[in-house]
Amino acid sequence: MGADRRRSKPARAPKPNPPRISNRNPDAEGINLPTIALIGPMGAGKTEVGRRLAERLGRPLIDTDALVVERDGRSVSDIFSEESETAFRAKEAEAVVEAAAVPGAVIATGGGVVLDPRNVEALRSSGQVIYLRASAAVAAARLGSGEGRPLLEGTPLGNRIAQLIEDRQDLYRRAAHYELNADGKLEDVVDALVEVWEAVCGPRFGFSLRGDAPRQ
Ligand code: S3P
Questions:
Q1: Would the pLDDT of 207 be above 50?
Q2: Residue from 149, 168, 186 whose mutation best tests the ligand 1 pocket (most atoms within 8 A of CB)
Q3: What structural domains does the chain harbor?
Q4: Rounded to whole angstroms, what are the CA distances from 119 to 31, 58, 96, 177?
C-alpha cells in the first residue's frame, strides 16, 4: 500500500536554474552597493587607479575634479584664480555628495577632499574609503610639471608636494578604512583593491563582484 502511494506520487518538477545575479548592474535587485572612494595626495594615481578599477569591476567612475569642471564649466585652475580656493572647495563638496549617492561608484577624489570633514563623512557613509599613499618623490615624478594644479604653482613642486603630504597625512589616515602603498605599479594597486572590494562586498551581498557566478 505504502509502495503504491509512493508510485502514484507525481514526478517532481525539474528545479529551475538558480537565479544568477549580474554584478554588472549596480542597481541589481535594488541593492545599494557601497561606493569605493580613493583619497590621497596629488600624484598618488587616484584618477588612473579609479579608471582601471571601475573598468575591472564594471562600476561607474566619478572623478570629483572632473565633476566640478563639468558642472561649473571652468577648469580647476580657473576656479581657483577667478574665484578662490574656498569657492572650489564648496563645489568639490557638492560633487562629493553627488558622487556618494551613486550606488557602487568608484570615486576618484581631489587631494584636498579630506580638508572638509563633511566630505569624509559622506564618503565613509556611502562605502569604503581607501588611502593611496605615495611618497613625495613618486608623486612629484608622476605630476611632471604640475600643470593644472593651482596649489603647486610658484614653489618647487617636490617641496610643495612633500609639505602637502606631511600636512594631510593624518587626515588621510583618519578618513580611510584601508591604506595602500601606491608608489609601485598602478596595476598592482588595482589588483589589491579588487581583493579588498571582494572581501568587503562579496560576503555581504552573497556574490562575487568580479565574476558572475554567485558565491555558495
Ligand atoms: C588638490 C588636488 C587636485 C585638485 C585641486 C586641489 C589638493 O586634485 O582637486 O587642484 O588640494 O590637493 P588631484 O589630487 O586629483 O590632483
A1: no
A2: 149
A3: 32-205 (3.40.50.300)
A4: 23, 25, 6, 15
Residues 6 or more apart in contact with residue 117 via CB below 8 angstroms: none
Cell 617636490: give the residue. 158
Cell of 216: 555558495
133-169 b/e with 16+ CB inside 10 Å = b? bbbbebbbebbeebeebbbbeeeebbebbbebbeebe
Closest Cα to atom 9, ligand 1: which residue?
A: 110
Dist. CA 134 → ligand 1 center (Å): 14
For the segment 175-204, the average pLDDT, to the nearest whole number, is 87
Report the distance separating Cα 120 and Cα 108, nearest Å.
13
Is the Cα torsion angle 23, 28, 32, 38 positive or negative in sign? positive
Residues within a 6 A CB radius of ligand 1: 42, 46-47, 65, 76, 110-112, 149-151
Say yes or no to pLDDT of 45 above 70.
yes
Least confident of 156-160, 190-194, 206-210: 206-210
Say whether pTM exceeds 0.85. no
Task: Give the type of residue at 144.
Answer: G
